[in-house]
Amino acid sequence: MSLAADARLALKFASRELRGGLSGFRILLACLAIGVAAIAGVGSIRAAIEAGLEAEGAALLGGDAEVSFTYRFANEEERAWMTETALSVSEIADFRSMATVPREDGSTDRALTQIKAVDTTYPLIGTVGLSPDIPLPEALSCAADTPCIVAEQLLTDRLGLTPGDTLRLGSKTFVLGAILTNEPDSATGGFGFGPRIIVRRADLEGSGLLQPGTLFDSHYRMTLPEGADIDAIKAEAEGRFESSGLRWRDARNGAPGVARFVDRLGAFLILVGLSGLAVGGVGVSAAVRAYLARKTSVIATLRTLGATRQVIFLTYFLQIGALALLGIVAGLLLGGFVPLALAPIIADQLPVPARFGLFPGTLAEAAIYGALTALVFTLWPLARAEEVRAATLFRDALSAGRALPRPTYLVVIAVFLAVLVGTAALFSGTWELTLWTAGGIAFALVLLRLAGLLLRAAARRAQSAARGRAPLRWALASIGGPRSEALPVVLSLGLGLSVLAAVGQIDGNLRGAITRELPDRAPSFFFVDIQKDQMPAFLDRVETDPAVSRVDSAPMLRGIITRINGRPAAEVAGDHWVLRGDRGVTYSGPLPDTTRITAGEWWGPDYDGPPQISFAAEEAAEMGLNLGDEMTINILGRDITGTVTSFREVDFSTAGMGFITAMNPSALEGAPHSFIATVYADAQAEAAILRDIGNEAPNVTAIRVRDAIDRVAVLLQGIASATSWGAAATLLTGFLVLIGAALSGERDRVYEAAVLKTLGASRRRILGSLALRSALLGAGAGLVALAAGIAGAWAVSYFVLETDFAVIWANALAIVLGGLLANLLAGLAFAWRPLSVRPAQVLRAQD
Amino acid sequence: MTDPILSLNDARLTLDGNAGPVDILRGITLDVEKGETLGLIGPSGSGKSSLLMLMGGLERATGGQITALGHDLTAMSEDALARFRRDHMGVVFQSFHLIPTMTALENVATPLELAGKPDAFERAAEELAAVGLAGRADHYPAQMSGGEQQRVALARASAPRPDILLADEPTGNLDGPNGQAIMDMLFGLRDRHGATLVLVTHAPDLAQRCDRVIRLRDGALDRAEAAA
Question: Which parts of the sequence belong to the ABC transporter domain (chain B) (predicted)?
């Protein structure tokens, strides 16, 4: 018979079988629906943020386009070009400083702040939100004879200020005009160390801030004529001011940092979602297997009546396919509409704009994942269905068929698996991460399967030791014997718990390293913007303090590496982080005590020749640099080209001073610059140092390292919690699979309980045995997941983060307990029937 | 005269069917003496197995009274019934009803474990040897033939030395020679341990091996007759 005829016949059989309803397929549907929904949901939120960033790009950027400079303002030529090109231009300077409030008792409160010095046209696009609700110009001219500022509530709370109060920036007094509640272009600023203050740049005159050498960025926001060719303008700017260190951004990607972060986190979460789908796949596979086991006699009968293997395969493929489609559609509806329904709540939680909607591309991505997963996980059991022979009717179904499907099916499954991984890589845009994730999932599944087998073997062996403790022995018998639930339980619970364990261990170790170990090794303070003439007094104050154990200081400039060996740097070294923005550059005559040269030679204290560069060794290797390479660094709009003559060891892990690039003094000394210093001091001496330096040099900014570390820790916590939510979806799917396993095992348990009752077992003992087996299996799955999670976390810590690793025991215990409780809950939820049913009902039915 | 070991007084069983209540047993009054072997025969659906289930406390009578060894089974809770079976009864089913997750030895040891016997496994091994299955102790039910499974079930039922052995068509799923062997073993065990045996069977020739045979029809006693 032809394939078409077989398919028609199979369709008839399939539709007849599906008349029985969906009662046996709830778990299959739920597994697929939740897996697809999680991916569609994450994708929808990511797409909403991307749509929001795109739609509000101009407001986020503060203009249609922006050019920025490090460390300097635009020169006349650059200003003239901007005025020619744009309808309007707004100039902003962004830098860190200290806000201080002198108290009546002579003490001074200080807080680090990120100052945005603006002109009268700011903001070109968008509105600054203030409390009280007044326009920005009004707030910034709130007092007749004193300049005004607006500040974020975090800062005013920290300094105990309310509108009308005064504070000092540098050596000048300002009045707080209003509280800043919404800064339209806040997402573009990157990682700020302190809360924001907005002030007129003109009002900073006489404050001692923004001196030559101060570390600041200048931004010029432009509104462009309607229909302007942004690409052409960008090309012109970059071409004309190629060697000036100019950086370009435009409204098409107003917050590239945020967009990149959202894109990467989204891609990562979708990969976590895929692990959820893999667990769902295990459940789907189990559900299909259980269904086909129930259908063995039907299949055998069909075979007896003359149905070919192809008809049998197609009959059940069509049924499962229809059900999978239903599950995927349910998942898409959930994943598409739930974020839409919760849009106001989600938008409130997001620091960036989001435009919610239904995103067909995102939904298609989730549907493809769902369909491929369903194919990969159902083909195996389906292929085995066609192996059922008519003779099975006369023999125990358990012994029927061979272990592996035919080679054709194995090849088809492998192809679908490859397509799934390829699709994930294509959508996530990162082959490396996808392959690691796929490898991780595959490894975890193999490991969990092995662990499940091991658990069964251990339970079998332990039975003899449990003789005399009947409920325990029955529990072990059921785990170790045929029809054991060990494999499905360990697989379904294990993968979700493994991801959770790995996330918990990585997060705990990373945060431990940052919040506990780092402060022990890191300096107490960074002092930046120290003018050259302030250095002697500064050093005198800190070096003579017995509470200070170490002071490092160095001249500091900032520069952008623009060319390597005459070619654009990005062409040579790709998208290396060192090239992504401006980096600190220092100079020194003699080799500093703490510097270790790994290759080449330092220029020596009296060198006065052409510029030479000493580059960080590890980064040089990553970028493919060699001794003798020429490198052009743009500092303050001037290109300085030098030769790389040595590589140095630079350790960023201690949060101490570390410069990627060092040059000989004569190359840089002429440029305006300031100094940076790190001070290692006892905690109790910190306040006095801060006070004295602040009084002596109000323009100097002190960054307390612990505060910065806390901010990083909060950021990490956010990422870890987002990942944990992804893992929770995996766990939820795993729990569903557990319920599926418990459901499919219910018949066996009811039967077993009936026989045990016949033999004289009380319900309490039977319940005890049921609880024990669930708890043992759950704890076993938890332990296996913990081992897999710790192994994964160690690998990430050791190879990727390069941090020390220690097991976080509280988290480990929670994982094992979680596994135990989850399985106990699933097991006990299905204990009622075995306990309540009367033996005769069951045993007679069996006869 | 001693008190009967099993006594049914107007025992009734009505079950809810799709088309309404169905009377399975309609007032059975019957005494079984200690040490007696009683055969229950009758056509399919006559209520033989249900009567046996009532005697074993595996089914609850909806009317009347059933006493075993002087205890009123109808007044006992599910757990009390389970304990009573543990201490006094052994049951053999047509479908063997071994626990598939346990080996032959573990199946036989289970009632002894439940009774808290410290030597449960030693005694189980002896019982298995007694039914000729010493070499199959570590096999799971699925790895054994029907005849072997029924022998394990027999060993399990007799291992705790019950006062009453209830057997529900124990040869129903077996061929002639296997069925004959099982019957020989059942009566042999009963003879050795002196238990009271109630045997449900379709086969008149098997029933004739009992001291007394009772025929059921439509849930009621048809007539009682003592075997030779």
Answer: 6-228
